[in-house]
Amino acid sequence: MTVVAGALPLSLRDRWQAIRNRLLASPRFQHWAAAFPLTRPIARREATALFDLCAGFVYAQTLSACVSLDLFERLAKRPVAIATIAAEADMPGEAALRLIRAAAALRLLETDGTTARLGPLGAALRGNPGIAAMVRHHALLYRDLADPVALLRGESDASLAAFWPYDAASEDRAGTYSALMAASQPMIAAEILAAYDFRRHRRLLDLGGGDGSFLAALAPAAPLLDLTLFDVPTVAELARRKLAAAGLAGRSRVCGGDMRRDPLPRDADIITLIRVLHDHDDDQAMAILRNARAALERGATLLIAEPMAGTRGALSMGDAYFGLYLFAMGSGRPRRPAELFAMLSAAGFTAARRHATNQPMLASVITARAA
Is this prediction's pTM over 0.90? Predict the structure, then answer.
């Protein structure tokens, strides 16, 4: 038996997977599986999944073109002739037809070859403006991923890393990325509010709360809850104005500072971290958790809501999307619930548990109590 230096011994699972992988890589087996009636549906599904991985960038750019041309809004009320779309977009008729047909194949639009109308996925996207905002923002991510190996080796200048200098941002830059986060906040907040009843609490501190969009969405669901937001000073000022405009100045306060090390308000019986921890590396995330624990009385609640790795039904969103997105951003990583449970315990929390959400790809929810 040949022993490879540094190789680990093979388990039964490893041996089975090696056999499986040899079969799947065999053109003869692929041809047989595609022809045999019982395996044909599986073979077609797997072949389609593999092709979708190869073609994914083209699909994403088709979506990007539709968003850039505002086609979903343009087609919301009635069909439009493709010739009209071509003229409005200043492109040849054949090019517009190619785009419309590509979008129809992806169920974004529908077409009879001469007119275009809104498709089911285009209609769903139109109902969630945050998705379109992220599609526009993805131009930075795609630039970083043009050479993914160079990005992973640290040999490229990441555009996302330049976009997110949160701590020292000017008010203009803070407004830009706060608006991006706020655009997707309604659908995130809806998931959180369906998973957890905030009416049991009296005062909430939203740590890293951005421009106040989550608090503005939460306020009607818990009308007796006093609200506090804590974020870096430039972002806190944006939140102060937004909450005042929403008529919440009388039941909210806004504090500016560094949530990793500055003292936090100590009168909250629940602290929320909404899409905060996964933006930070482990040492910074632990500093945030320990600072939150120091601000809470024993038995008070901490709530974490963010997309999490290893979540059934959202596996690609966790490690595949956020894994590389946050790497390009230069900070943070998607974590599995078990990892967060361990971090919470180390920070002085107990009784950590998950709360089911309807769309785990948008957010999973964990609560814990101050020990």
Answer: no
